[in-house]
Amino acid sequence: MTHRRNTRTTGPGQLALIAWALLATSSTANDANPAAFPGTATDWYGFERYDFEVDGKPVLVVAPRQPATGRPWVWHGEFFGHKPEPDVALLKRGFHVVYMRVPDMLGAPAAVAHWNAFYRELTEKHGLAKKAALVGLSRGGLYCYNWAAANPDKVACIYGDAPVCDFRSWPGGRGKGKGSPRDWKLVLERYGFKNDAEALAFDKNPVDNLTPLAAAKIPLLHVYGDADDVVPWEENTGVLARRYRELGGSITLIAKPGVGHHPHGLDDSAPIVEFIVQHAAVPEPASTTSRRLDPVGEIAARLEPMRRIIYKKAGGRELYLHVFEPEDWKLTDRRPCFLVIHGGGWTGGEPRRMYPFAEHFARRGCVGISVQYRLLDAKQGTTVFDCVKDGRSAVRFVRAHAESLGVDPDKIIVSGGSAGGHIAAGTALFGGVDEEGEAIETSSVPNALVLLFPVIDTSPAGYGSAKIGDRWRELSPVHQVRGKVPPTLVFHGTGDTVTPFAGADAFRRTMQQAGNRCELDAYDAGKHGYLMFDRELYFDTLQKTEDFLKSLKLLPNP
Predict the structure, then answer these.
(1) How far is CA 92 from CA 45, 69, 89, in A?
(2) Cβ count within 10 A of residue 18
(3) Whole-angstrom distance between the N-terminal and C-terminal Cα of the chain?
(4) How does pLDDT run across 229-243, given as a tens digit for each residue?
(5) Fold adopted by 14-280
(6) pLDDT digit string, tens, across residues 177-212
(7) What is the pLDDT of residues 235-294, one digit of tens each?
(8) Peptide bond into 84 cis (omega under 30)
(9) 3-state DSSP assignment of residue 47
């Protein structure tokens, strides 16, 4: 690896260290009167940093201006200060950030023992929360996972970034990776192995030692580059994720296509920060006025995608595909893809809203994907044209990366609700509305469309002209119909006053007059979004969609 090398240290005898390292520590934190941190305060991105020693090792603590309730904290395994944006954001949210410098120990028992001592210092003397959020960049993954396995009751969550999860992969180089002979010698030394064979037979690498974490229900987040040839994701994150899920554990994966071991992190660190806040912050008392979820929202709240894949970068942030895979999915598969886009008037909403559709069709044998796109925002300079560009980019990405997604590029179904239905229609109808510099030789046109109460007429008589402006006709599906549009199924309520039913009916007629297959499922007196608010109507919609896709031979046999 090409990280900055730290000074090498030598630990005491292995037998005593192993015995000590495997003991879980206890704490009686004095939350009411935590001791002040020793050392002289220095500035770190506008926050006070304290450097001192614990157990004979250098440590540092960066303190928030105002600690959050319960004094939550983040603990770095290695490479503190690299990609500091998540730490700065968490400090602003009241988290402490800590690091213990035990370089070249690669998560060995001696390192775990030193971490035990630091944990006691932070919780018993300084009153930090009983559970820490662990951050493992690269080799830092060995530190975090090995300490967590010995102390699962003291871990709130783990965020790994291209983390080493098996030292046989790195530094051992026994798989697809380059390996590091220098660091492999350190593994033998630090873990007390007599030879290579003993090290290779070791059964307590993170990928082998997940049962304590799963039993403690520790949530995991891994960010990785799928072109990493230093710490290959398949041998580390991939193996760990599969085994953790088999144990009933929860892990979120964020893939960076075409990216190697560097750079770490994300351009927009919000997903990392929110993951840590969600699982490590002490929750505030539940509000008695929380919004009640509709039936589809209730289903969505229980679902999590198998992984998130960055399909595009725009405006200084990453945009994600939230991917659901069939249970028996394999990388070599060529599955149909059901890609669905959320609504919200182009100004709101999130991919979770459409998770139930993506997950349902994953259970029916497809790769299900819910799409994130830029929202209309005058301050950010984003328009409805940008929303459309992102939808078209998403289809192009899936088609161009069909092999790595296990998808058949000739069996892509695009669906969407309300404004998401408009963007879905735009993948087929709005030729030329494309991101500058994008490889448009890869088609954005899907093989079928399923539109749910869509924005289908953006004229003043329909919906959207005020948000789009004078160029509304360019983004009006009913005004852009031509021949050879993919087969389309539209669900719409006759009582819809947001996206009037007349537009959907006109779209059906125009499509059929142009020689296209278009079916309109009209629900009598149904208001906007009607099928999301009634469980029976939702499942009826799924069944009718399945029948439509079967007629096109786009749905696998049960």
Answers:
(1) 11, 13, 5
(2) 16
(3) 46
(4) 999 999 999 999 999
(5) Rossmann fold (3.40.50)
(6) 999 999 999 999 999 999 999 999 999 999 999 999
(7) 999 999 999 999 999 999 999 999 999 999 999 999 999 999 999 998 766 555 567 899
(8) no
(9) strand
- Angle between helix axes 85-92 and 270-280 (nearest 10 degrees) is 40
236, two tokens: 């580390």
The CA–CA distances, whole Å, from 419 to 317, 426, 520, 527 equal: 22, 10, 18, 15
Do 159 and 133 form a contact (C-beta atoms < 8 A)?
Answer: yes
Say what the pTM is: 0.89
Instruction: Please tell me the predicted confidence (pLDDT) of residue 287.
Output: 52
- Written out in words, the top-level CATH class of the domain with range 311-551 is alpha beta
Angle formed by the axes of helices 14-21 and 109-120, nearest 10°: 50
Domains 14-280 and 311-551 share a fold: yes
Alpha-carbon distance of 60 to 41, in angstroms, equals 10
Angstrom distance (rounded) from CA 188 to CA 197: 10
Contact indicator for 514, 481 with CB cutoff of 8 Å: yes
| Domain edges within the chain | 14-280, 311-551
**Number of CB atoms found within 10 A of residue 195's CB:** 8
Give the pairing type, strands 335-341 and 47-54.
unpaired
| Token code pair at residue 390 | 């992102």
